Structure formats: C-alpha cells, structure tokens
C-alpha cells in the first residue's frame, strides 16, 4: 500500500500576527513555525496504518513552501514516515487553495497512492478546501473531519464529526482521501534517536514550477485584525438606579431579558 | 558565523518544550511540595523513552547521538518546567557520557542502554565527600585490592538520585601514597551491592523532587571488572567529565531564569497600580531589559561552549564561563522576577519563589562558581605566563 500525507507548516498560534506590507497575509519574519496541528493527526494516523500493515508499505510526506518547511517534513519523517517530498515554493502563502490542491494533485496523479491523508484545515488560513479539492482533482472518493479510523482489506471505516456533537460512520474503499480532525488520535512525540535517524531519509525537492499549471481562482483582498471592541461599560451610582440601568441595558442590548 | 540551530536541534528543542509543558509543568509545584516521587519517576521513564537520557551517546548503545548543543537546549526546555527533573536528566547524561568516554566496551553495553531506556530510573555520580567538596582530590573513600575484587570503604555526600539510581560511578583512593589526585580510581557500583548503603536524604532549599543523599560503603565488595578506566587515573576523568556537566547545569539555570522572567513579565502586563499596568513603570521595564539581556548572553555562552565540545575543541574554560555566568544570571533573574510580583512573588501561590529556590543551587553544584572562576583565570593566566 502506498500512502501520502500532506502537511503544512504554520506559525505557532501563540504568535503575534501583524499584516505584511501588501496587506494580504501576515508578516512572517520572526515567527516560529511548526507543523499544522491537524496534519499531525494525519501523520500519526498514516504511521499507525503503516505499523498495522507492516514495513513493506510506504508513507510519503509532502509539504509545499519555502526552505523552512523541511523542518516539518523532518518531524514527520522522525514520527515514522518513510520519505519526504518538498515542493519548493517561496511564495506558497500567496497561492489559493485551488492552486495548492492542484500542485498536490499534479504530484500524486501517476504515483498510485492508495490512500491520502490531509489535515481537516490549516490553522492559519483555515479554508478546509485543499484536501477535498485534491480528491476532486484526482477523482478519488473522500471523507472529511475524521475522529476515528480503521482499515481492513481495502476498506476504510471512518468516524466523522458532524455538527452539534453528532457522529457519522462512513465506509469507503481505497483509493481514497481522508481529512483529519482533532480527536482522531494523540500524535506521538518524535523520539530523539528517530529525529537523528530521519536525517538519512530521502527528501526529494521539486520546484513548484514543475507541478503548477493552474491560475488562482480566489484572491485575498485584505488581511487585518478585527476592529478593537469598545471597552466594557462601568455603571456608577446608587444601587437602586444601577439595577434599573442594568435591566434596561440587558433588555435593549441582549437577549437575556425579553 | 551562523547562529541558528540545525533542523534536528530545533525539533529536539520543540519536543522537549512540548513534553515539558504537557507533562512536567503541571506536576512541578506538586513535586516541590510533597514527598511522593511517583510523578517524577513516571516522567523520567517517559523522557528516557523519548531519548533524553543519552543525548550525546552512540546510537548502538541506545543513545540519540544528537550532540552537546541539542543536550543544552533540551536541558533548558526541561528546566523551564521542572528543575528537579532537569538535574536528574543532566546527571544521567553525565554518567552515560563518562561510561562512554572511559568504560570498556563490556561496561558500556552493561550500563548505558539501561540508563538510556529508563530501565534504570537514574544513575549517580558519586564524587563529593564531607571533607572533599571543592577539592575532590582530598577524598578518603578507599578501594582496596583484595585478589579478585576491590573492597570499598568510606562515605559520599550530596549524591543526586541515589535512592533510585541503578548504577553509581564512584571515585575512591586506590593509592594512598601517591601525590594528590594521582591515586584515585573510578568504579561502577550497581545498586543493591551488599555494603552499598543509601544514607540520609538532605532537606534542601529547592529542587525538592530530586533526591540528594549520603552514600556509604561498608566493606562493599565489587568485582575487579568494576574498575572503569585505568587504575589511579580516575581523578583526571572526573575533572574532564565535570566540564561537560557544567554545560548541562548552566543550561538548567538558564531554563529556570527564563521561566521566572517569562512569568513575571506577563504578570506586569496584567497587574495595575496607580491606575496603570506596572509594565509601564520604567523601574519594571529596566528589570525586564536587564533580566532578558543577561539570559540571552548566558544562552550564547552556553551555545559556544556546547558547540566547541561538539566540534572536539577545548571547552573547559568556555564551559566554566557559561556555567558561572548563566547560573548567576539565572539567580539575578529569579530575584528580579520575585520583585516584579511584589508580595505575591513571596507566596507559594505563585511559582516564582520556587524558581528562586531551585535556581540557587546551580551556582554551587557541579563546581561552585568560585571554583569556575579559579578554572577560568587559570586558563587565561596560562597564556600570560
Ligand atoms: C543539591 C546538591 C546536589 C549535589 N549533587 C552531587 C552529585 O550528584 N555528585 C557529587 O559528587 N556531588 C554533588 N553535590 C556536591 C557539590 O558538587 C558540592 O557541594 C560542591 O562542589 C561544593 O562543595 P562543598 O559543598 O564541600 O563546599 P566547599 O568546598 O566547602 O566550599 C565552601 C565555600 O568555599 C569556597 N571555596 C572552596 N575552595 C575555594 C577556592 N579554592 N577558592 C575560592 N573559593 C573556594 C566555595 O566556593 C564555597 O563558597 C551536590 C550538592 C548539592 C547541594
């Protein structure tokens, strides 16, 4: 079985984001980057599947971006993926989800992957489009927001998270694509010996120009922090008057009192 | 000049940071205040499984072969969460390194994999005696050759991890008549050996979860094969290995200092007095500036010493400089942080008083900072003589 995991490197979400010069993305200088959380679930699940199936089965991890994304690829290799693919693109953040999906699909098209894992969405852009669009491009069946995964003899049984805590169970035959949600698993820490051994695993570098034929279909018009909310209201005065004022505000401005 | 960690070093740092935040930080205060070492031992096992006990150890012996820079950044991240766990990890690494450096292949295979895998919860480095602290060559513990074995008699003090160590590296006098420091040898003594007695545990100011005990030898008979390295050559080894350990302790100090400054700095952006956040007072801003600048200088000294060791260059002077400066910067940072919290800093409801207590010992063990200054000045003066 050939498995592909697609991962993105995103800024640490504790970072302070500010718009970059062009105002359509954030300033990346000085940010610390790490593997997108949802992609960690994807890598973990892919590695568990390989462990279930045995060493003859191969997990490839792919990431698109500037040189720094090699660190995320190496983490996935240290977690147990077999080989890496770095699609070199210093301007990945300017591409829309359509293009990112097209790049992945162009890479994967003739490789005969039986199963593709992606995260449900990225923590920074959050479009949740790349996984499903790759599936569409490749003509693969696809199931999303996985919180449970089992594989047996060519059939995936996927537990999905739906709105309001409702769960759904989907069965799909490989080849297929799945997107992974929080709760699917607890990703392992890469062990230190495995981090060092991952140095010896192959990382194929492919210039993005070799894979991308598509124009962007959406354009980000602006990236900005939300307008600052006004400060809270401080009421002052006698208790009786305060209560009247408060009840008035709750009636007018909220749904608490009707 | 390139002052960036490699990708592998960054991943090790990230792993240490995430593990420390998830597993060590939540139990650090509890470990400080109780006698139950359960959570410490459980976390040591997990750290071993991740490869933190043999950072600079060969792969075939169960180590990570990740180098000294990785060791330094890992120690700092672990210490940011729990200094007691960090010192245990540091000593375990030091014991592994000394065995790797001078042990026979058989000794390496017998002990290093057990420390690296966590089969041994810890390992101990037993050098200090009541009469031999800063001057370990004044030790009196003796190992007498008795045909096919050595017999140890004497007492060590302040031995980290002794109650749960699986193996002890022990220094003892093997030639009483030799000049000072020339008649000491190094031995590997397994826990449970008859005559090896774990004595009383010290009640300390800080680093409570890490046990510090007396270790007594009462006609403790060990096989000839327990001798590590050459007979009467042990003191040189001790001195050499302590230099590496200093990078660990300096890095540990840095981690505690950073934890204190991070906590206090955040606090100053939330605490208001005189109608404004206390971070707007210049007096507070200067503490923030000074504290972080000193810790950054400490980090660079540590990186330099670690890098030199990794490159096989001389590093004793640099390790002493880094240990001395980093642990003093850390102590200053902890006391600044305490001041920034005002009265709250002095209470146990906030972690800063613990950081201050935990940081204090780093200026004392692994060679007091006075001894570091002796080493540094000796190395420098050598060039002027
Ligand atoms: C918590 C803890 C854990 C420890 N863990 C270990 C361990 O695992 N293994 C181990 O072997 N040891 C361990 N030690 C021992 C530690 O390394 C010694 O305490 C330290 O080396 C100092 O020795 P001392 O306490 O005898 O102080 P002393 O040597 O008596 O020093 C007292 C003072 O005199 C100063 N002084 C001494 N000589 C000179 C000099 N030549 N010039 C200037 N000043 C000098 C010292 O700097 C110090 O200020 C530990 C100690 C503690 C407290």
Helix content of chain A: 25-40%
Helix % of chain B is 40-55%
Radius of gyration of chain B: 21 Å
The CATH superfamily of the largest domain in chain B is identified as: Butyryl-CoA Dehydrogenase, subunit A, domain 3
Distinctive features:
heterodimer, A: 258 residues, alpha/beta, Rossmann fold, nine-stranded mixed β-sheet, two-stranded antiparallel ribbon, 6 helices, 26% strand, globular, B: 385 residues, alpha+beta, Butyryl-Coa Dehydrogenase, subunit A, domain 1, Butyryl-CoA Dehydrogenase, subunit A, domain 2, Butyryl-CoA Dehydrogenase, subunit A, domain 3, 3 domains, four-stranded antiparallel β-sheet, 10 helices, 16% strand, binds flavin-adenine dinucleotide
How does this model look, in words?
The complex is a heterodimer of chains A (258) and B (385). Chain A is an alpha/beta fold. Chain A has a single domain (2-210), classed as Rossmann fold (3-Layer(aba) Sandwich), CATH 3.40.50. Chain A has 6 helices and 11 strands. In chain A, the strands form 2 sheets. Chain A has a 9-stranded mixed sheet, with helices on both faces. The longest helix of chain A has 17 residues, at 37-53. Chain B has 385 residues and is an alpha+beta fold. Chain B folds into 3 domains: 7-120, Acyl-CoA dehydrogenase/oxidase, N-terminal domain (Butyryl-Coa Dehydrogenase, subunit A, domain 1, Orthogonal Bundle); 125-232, Butyryl-CoA Dehydrogenase, subunit A, domain 2; 236-382, Butyryl-CoA Dehydrogenase, subunit A, domain 3, CATH 1.20.140.10. Helices cover 52% and strands 16% of the residues of chain B. In chain B, β2 and β3 (149-160) form a beta hairpin. In chain B, 52% of the residues are buried. The model of chain B has no long low-confidence stretch (mean pLDDT 97). At the A-B interface, α2 and α5 of A face α1 of B. The structure holds flavin-adenine dinucleotide. Flavin-adenine dinucleotide binds at residues 91, 125-128, 133-134, 158-160, 204, 207, 212, 361, 364-365, 367-368, 370-371, 374 of chain B.
């Amino acid at each position: 079985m050939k498995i592909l995991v697609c991962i993105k490197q995103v800024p640490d979400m504790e970072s302070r984001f500010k718009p970059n010069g062009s105002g359509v993305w954030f300033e990346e200088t000085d940010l610390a980057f790490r593997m997108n959380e949802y992609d960690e679930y994807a890598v973990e699940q892919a590695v568990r599947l390989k462990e279930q199936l045995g060493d003859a089965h191969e997990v490839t991890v792919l990431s698109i971006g500037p040189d720094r994304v090699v660190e995320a690829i190496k983490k996935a290799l240290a977690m147990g993926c077999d080989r890496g693919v770095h699609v070199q693109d210093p301007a990945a953040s300017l591409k829309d989800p359509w293009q990112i999906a097209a790049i992945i699909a162009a890479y994967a098209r003739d490789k005969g992957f039986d199963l593709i894992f992606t995260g449900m969405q990225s923590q920074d852009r959050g479009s949740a489009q790349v996984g499903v669009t790759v599936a569409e491009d490749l003509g693969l069946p696809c199931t999303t927001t996985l919180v449970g995964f089992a594989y047996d003899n060519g059939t995936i049984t996927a537990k999905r998270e739906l709105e309001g805590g409702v769960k759904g169970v989907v069965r799909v035959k490989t080849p297929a694509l799945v997107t992974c949600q929080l709760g699917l698993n607890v990703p392992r820490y890469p062990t230190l010996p495995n981090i060092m051994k991952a140095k010896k695993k192959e990382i194929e570098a492919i210039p993005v120009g070799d894979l991308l034929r598509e124009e962007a279909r959406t354009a980000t018009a602006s990236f900005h922090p939300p307008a600052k909310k006004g400060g809270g209201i401080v009421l002052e005065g006698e208790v009786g008057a305060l209560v009247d004022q408060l009840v008035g505000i709750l009636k007018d401005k909220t749904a608490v009192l009707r | 000049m390139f002052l960036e960690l490699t990708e592998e070093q960054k991943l090790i740092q990230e792993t240490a940071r995430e593990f420390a935040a998830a597993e060590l930080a939540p139990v650090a205060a509890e470990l400080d205040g109780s006698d139950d070492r359960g959570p410490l031992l459980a976390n040591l096992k997990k750290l071993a499984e991740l490869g933190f006990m043999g950072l600079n150890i060969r792969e075939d012996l169960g180590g990570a072969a990740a180098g000294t820079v990785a060791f330094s950044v890992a120690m700092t991240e672990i210490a940011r969460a729990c200094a007691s766990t960090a010192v245990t990890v540091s000593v375990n690494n030091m014991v592994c390194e000394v065995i790797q450096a001078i042990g026979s292949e058989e000794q390496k295979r017998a002990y290093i994999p057990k420390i690296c895998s966590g089969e041994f919860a810890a390992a101990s480095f037993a050098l200090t005696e009541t009469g031999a602290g800063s001057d370990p060559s004044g030790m009196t513990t003796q190992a007498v050759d008795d045909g096919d074995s050595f017999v140890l008699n004497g007492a060590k003090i302040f031995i980290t991890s002794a109650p749960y160590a699986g193996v002890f590296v022990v220094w003892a006098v093997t030639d009483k008549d030799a000049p000072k420091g020339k008649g000491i040898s190094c031995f590997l003594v397994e826990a449970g050996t008859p005559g090896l007695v774990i004595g009383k545990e010290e009640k300390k100011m800080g680093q409570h979860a890490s046990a510090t005990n007396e270790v007594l030898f009462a006609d403790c008979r060990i096989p000839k094969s327990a001798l590590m390295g050459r007979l009467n050559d042990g003191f040189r080894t001790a001195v050499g290995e302590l230099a590496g350990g200093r990078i660990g302790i300096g890095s540990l100090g840095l981690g505690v200092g950073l934890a204190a400054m991070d906590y206090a700095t955040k606090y100053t952006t939330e605490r208001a007095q005189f109608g404004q956040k206390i971070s707007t007072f210049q007096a507070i801003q200067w503490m923030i500036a000074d504290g972080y600048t000193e810790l950054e200088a400490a980090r660079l000294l540590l990186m330099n010493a670690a890098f030199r060791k990794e490159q096989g260059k001389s590093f004793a002077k640099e390790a002493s400089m880094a240990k001395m400066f980093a642990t003093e910067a850390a102590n200053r940072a902890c006391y600044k942080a305490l001041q920034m919290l005002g009265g709250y800093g002095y209470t146990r409801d906030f972690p800063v008083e613990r950081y201050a207590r935990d940081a204090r010992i780093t200026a004392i063990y692994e060679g007091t900072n006075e001894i570091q200054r002796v080493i540094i000045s000796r190395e420098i003066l050598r060039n002027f003589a």
